[in-house]
Amino acid sequence: MSGDFTISNLTDRPEFFDDVADRIWRAWWQPHGVPLAYITERLKENVAGKPMPRAFVAHEGTTFAGTASVIASDLDERPQYTPWVAAVWVEPGFRSRRIGRILIAHAANHALSTGAPRVYLTARPARRSLYEGLGWKMVEEAVGDLAMTVFALEA
Description:
Elements: E1 6-9, H1 17-29, H2 36-44, E2 54-60, E3 63-71, E4 84-90, H3 99-113, E5 118-123, H4 128-133, E6 137-143, E7 148-154
Antiparallel strand pairs: 1-2, 2-3, 3-4, 5-7, 6-7
Helix pairs in contact: 1-2
């Protein structure tokens, strides 16, 4: 438990699978015309029992609160960076409760527990102070078409 919510491996809480797929799709893929079925197939890889990819869910009992994943690569422009914390989402009604921060830390700790010396994440430049406040170090700015900032957290 973390406060009044729990972080679980999606494998252990499959009832949240559709929620996770829907939020990832709506937030990052639907605007680019990618079908939900594609995201659903990719998310199935997260419940295969391997250390990576891995999806985590935050929930209050049976109520979905958010998600974060650990994946091999999150930026086509930077394949040398691995693993990544990605697809962090917190439901609007659960925001401002530090759930996103806890999900990020949980996913990062999982990635580092696999033996990786560092873990990466990417974010819009406006989020820089948030991630630096959580101990992440900026690695690169203005990466790719979306001018993303890349951060790393050392083991």
